[in-house]
Amino acid sequence: MIAFLQGTVEALFPNTCFLNVHGVGYRLTITETLAAQLTLGQNVTIYTYLDVREDALVLYGFANSDENDLFCQLLTVNGIGPKAALKLLSHLQYEPLIQAIQSQNIKILSSVPGIGKKIAQRIALELKDKLPDIICPSPDKPVQPITNNLNDAKEALLFYGYSQNEIQATLAKITDTSDTAQIIKTALKMLSPL
To answer: Which residue of 16, 40, 68, 130 could cross-link 62, Cys pair, CB 3.0 to 4.6 Å?
Structure first.
């Protein structure tokens, strides 16, 4: 199985990118969120899932291993295939999707095109206790998609060696998310108080 690919973005479309890995071009089906983050000529690492069918091999790509893991968890739900799982990640993104599942928010889950109420209920029921802990908002505070600044800060904090749970709990407390560098500084102060 191909865990990830490192290469240069050669072509980019709303849900697809061509990645040049040492002269070999890989066609990756990706989330709309990842497509918006990529630029032509950019050197990137994309985490992958290979879907093997009778008539095709389809390689799905994700910004990080967390998204890839969540995609794989979604595939364990009866009635959810790769296309539906990708739509869920594209429309809700990583943290808001987990929050919606953990809080059993069927309305949010079924707002994704192609995801009906019954499938949304099944996702919430089957995955509620299988996903990483993310601080869920109170019922009167709606789930908001995470910003790219928070994603960038999260990657930086992972690089510094902090755990997913530490990072999620800390980032949930930060209200000003307009500047990535400031988010990282604030998070580091909270994670390493003197």
So the answer is: 68
Pairing of strands 24-30, 43-52: unpaired
pTM of the full predicted structure?
Answer: 0.66
Give the bridge partners for 62, in sequence order. Answer: 47
- Beta-sheet pairing, 57-62 with 24-30: parallel
- Asked which of 40-49, 95-104, 165-174 is least confident by mean pLDDT, the reply is 165-174
The whole-angstrom distance between residue 124's C-alpha and the CA centroid of its chain comes to 17
Tokens representing 16 are 């697809």
Q: Whole-angstrom Cα distance, residue 101 to residue 90?
A: 15
Beta carbons of 7 and 27 less than 8 angstroms apart: no
- C-alpha span between 34 and 179 (Å, rounded): 20
Of residues 19 and 144, which shows the higher confidence score? 19
Residue 48 phi, psi (nearest 5): -130, 160
**In this predicted model, what pLDDT tens digit does every residue of 57-105 receive, in sequence order?**
999 999 988 899 999 999 999 989 999 999 999 888 888 898 889 888 8
DSSP 56-70: -EEEEEESSHHHHHH
Q: What DSSP letter does each residue of 136-163 carry, written as one string?
A: PPPTTS---PPPHHHHHHHHHHHHTT--
